[in-house]
């Protein structure tokens, strides 16, 4: 297995995985929307996406977005997406992707990585084995725009 930093050149390998990831979270399949979204992120240099593959077969990915902490005055990454194809789970792919993201963050000199996950996500055990700490000090709130299209 190899993990590489993906770019627009890898779009067609990533789109089916990204679509499956969205389906996993209850969204309808939409390969074209997935392609457009990822193409925009790459085109604007808004993401870092790491692709795990073996002999050219895509196994999984993780996607990071850069943000900042005003309190610590440091940049950090949000690990927004982590997905491993169902036929490659429990084979170390997720762990390798997380470790790759951690190493990347260290090389960049960033404060760290943040993620949020569902309360019933079994990957929580994996996060904890890789020294991710559950933050019990803060509440997480989210405001949903009732009209996100701006119309």
TrEMBL record:
Cleaved signal peptide residues: none
Q: Which Pfam families match?
A: Acetyltransf_1
Task: Name any one GO molecular function.
Answer: acyltransferase activity, transferring groups other than amino-acyl groups
- Can you quote a single GO CC term? ribosome
All copies of domain N-acetyltransferase, residue ranges = 1-148
- Any idea which UniProt keywords this protein has? Acyltransferase, Ribonucleoprotein, Ribosomal protein, Transferase
Q: InterPro entries from the entry? A: Acyl_CoA_acyltransferase, Bact_Acetyltransf, GNAT_dom
Could you confirm whether the keyword Signal appears in this record?
Answer: no
Xref: PANTHER family: AMINOALKYLPHOSPHONATE N-ACETYLTRANSFERASE-RELATED (PTHR43877:SF2), AMINOALKYLPHOSPHONATE N-ACETYLTRANSFERASE-RELATED-RELATED (PTHR43877)
Q: What is the recorded name of this protein?
A: Ribosomal protein S18 acetylase RimI-like enzyme
């Amino acid at each position: 297995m190899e993990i590489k930093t993906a770019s627009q050149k890898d779009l067609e390998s990533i789109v089916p995985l990204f679509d499956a990831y969205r389906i996993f979270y209850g969204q309808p399949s939409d390969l074209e929307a997935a392609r457009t979204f990822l193409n925009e992120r790459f085109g604007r240099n808004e993401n870092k996406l790491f692709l795990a593959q073996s002999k050219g077969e895509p196994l999984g990915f993780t996607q990071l977005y850069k943000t900042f902490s005003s309190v610590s005055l440091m940049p950090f990454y949000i690990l927004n997406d982590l997905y491993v194809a169902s036929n490659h789970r429990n084979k170390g792919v997720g762990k390798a992707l997380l470790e790759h993201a951690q190493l990347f963050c260290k090389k960049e000199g960033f404060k760290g990585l943040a993620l949020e996950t569902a309360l019933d996500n079994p990957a929580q055990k994996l996060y904890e084995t890789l020294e991710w700490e559950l933050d019990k000090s803060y509440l997480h709130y989210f405001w949903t725009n009732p009209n996100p299209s701006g119309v």
